[in-house]
Amino acid sequence: MTRKTKNPTRSSGYVFVLSAVSIWAVSSGILVKLISVSAFTLYAVGAFWAILFLLIALAAKRKLVDLLSYPRKTLWLMLAVGLGVAINNGLFFTAIKTGTVANAVLTHYLAPLLVVLVFGPVILKEKITSRRIVLSAVGFLGLFVLIYPDLGRSVDPALIYGTLSAIFFAFHTSLEKMVTQTKIDSLSAVVYKNIVPLVVFLPFAIRSISAGISPDNWFWMTIWGILVLGVSFILYFQGIKRISAASASNLSYGEPIGAIALAAIFFREPVSLYTIIGGLLIIASGIGVVRARS
Question: Residue 19, exposed/middle/buried by CB under 10 A (0-12, 13-18, 19+)?
């Protein structure tokens, strides 16, 4: 009886995505709490430092000239990813600002379901399987249980903005999967992924800089930009290149549970029974994705 051999390329894809998700959890659970500027300013300044870091890396690899050497179709596709990132984050930040964080996060993480059921099949021609649907639903159920105690009782604008952000989150994830099928270098791809958000959020950064930003904030924004918008985006690009967009999206459910765990450890934020149950469901969803090799 012959055993199935594991695909090392695909296995490394899960490692890359989980590494990126771990960095996002550190960002949400620790780094963002150390920075006291608006979310738009943080993203603009972070994108600037990420792009600078990436340009230095490309120069070191003698690939700086490659930024403008890719086919026009690839460049437009990558700029579309950047636009999706900008709109997604703009709507998500607005959801957090205008409503409850719980409602914003809950609706924002409709994205994996949208990738599995809508954008994956339509844009990427990925097959819809019952297993993928179940795993996505389990992950979303875990997120719902996780933040259930904080859900608002009245109609919350965050529900609208968060849902719209999920649509663009799923949209740019699917487009990025298309980009990985081209010959573009991961460093170049992430440069373009950050250019549009930088331009969109730059006015907010200029306003904050003119008002004055503390040295501590500058330090942590630099770290955040390089680590989150630079390193983690490279890892995610390498991961989604090797696995399906649906699998990568499902694994992103690990971000909120990781962030909550880190906040509990470093800032002594309380962990309830809802947190434990929701976290276990999210972890079960992630493990199911990895084992499925979908």
Answer: middle
